[in-house]
Amino acid sequence: MNTTRALIESALLTAIAVVLVLVSIYVPIFYFIGLFMWPLPIALIQIKHGYKYSFISLIATTIIVLLFTDPYTALGFAITNGILGIVLGIMIKRKESAINTIFVMIIINIISVTISIKIFGLIAGQDYIKLILDEFYNSIDTAKSFYEKLGIQKDLYENALKSIPPKEMLMMLIPFAIFSHGFISAMITYILAKNIYSRFGIELDGIPKFSNWYIPIKLAISIMFIVLIGYIASYFKIKNADAILLNSMYLMLVVFAVNGLAALSFWFDKQGISKSLKVVLLVFAFVFLGNILFLIGVADYSLNLRKLDKSRIRHSPK
């Protein structure tokens, strides 16, 4: 009886996974919503019925998606979202904390995306990232020509196009981009899982309120160590040293800027600012005041202004 129930539930969830993938692909408006939901059916199978059924579901979903799309899409789903779903299910079943679960999801995302890029490159016989960037910059050149033919003044579009970094710089920032994708994907997928799984009686650990986000000492030291390695590698002109330094600098800037944004959110809460206005102000600050947020983040971390890192309060001199 239990086997029959497991088979039926796994089959239904597999069908849902297939529908999510196909709808996301063929109806572009749903793509980004579906992209973060792809792992959820397989994760639920893992939670309820274990490895056997989750792996069978992953294989079945991949084959069906392959029939309706192409090997790249099907393989990409299996390597990234399928494996992520199984790992998410394992972490939830073990009742891991939200921070631990999201951290593991980020690592899985980074590894799976990197593997996917390498496999696609081998299949295509060329650098997959370089191919995408070449198409992107070719489209910019096409847009320039189009605007010139229309007689539009160069000043109206040249300034906007100048803000786009050179191709060489974007190539060097691929590791940072993969990390950013991994973090955002893990966060959104976990939030969706928490909201959806609660309907099935599965309660997930809550993510700390954004105002209470802070940089632990170990994370800060790790980032500073990576930056230091980048500087040393650049000084001795080691291969790819510039890429290491650039990615480590961007990582440090973003992490401390987010910490600054959390500190600003904390202050807004203290002032009793409404939620809607707070969101508008935080978005404005993040888009236009990144450097100031970085400084706020550094100050908040250095002085523990919000007193959120209890270990530093405990070990501070009386």
UniProtKB/TrEMBL annotation:
Keywords tagged on the record: Membrane, Transmembrane, Transmembrane helix
Spans traversing the lipid bilayer: 12-38, 50-68, 74-92, 99-124, 169-192, 213-236, 248-267, 279-299
Family matches, as Pfam families: DUF2232 (PF09991)
Listed name of the protein: Uncharacterized conserved protein YybS, DUF2232 family
Species for this entry: Caloramator fervidus
